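WARN retry 2 of 3 for item q-0093 after timeout on previous attempt; input resubmitted unchanged.
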Amino acid sequence: MTTQTETSIPAMGTEDLQRLVEVAQLVTAARDAMSDEIVTRLSWAMSEGLTLLDRLTRNEGLMHLLKVLDRQDTQYLLIALSDAIHEASQEIPANPPATGGLGCLMRVVRDPGTQEGLRLLSVIGKHLSHSMREQHRHG
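OK item q-0093 returned
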């Protein structure tokens, strides 16, 4: 008379048994490596991580920002902004310092990139102040 366990073991192949042995060895090694200090540090890190996650998900402003950042048009703006930051970090050290004066300022102001940058900041400022006023009115 055979039991169910005895009939299922011969059905397993050598590779399956080898994998099972490897998993058992991995679990044993992990258990052996878990000292009291590691367990304490892991539990502290998990506790802090959960606390941080709770704070982040309760922050209405951050959650709204994450929703906005997930939109495709905002993704394009973020990519452009990160590219601009990288290019500026390369360009500024490679060029000599500005000489100053009205002539230098006029050259900078005539640059279409400067004008577009100022326009971008102006549009962001306009919408930011409108949004802040609306929030203040509605509490």
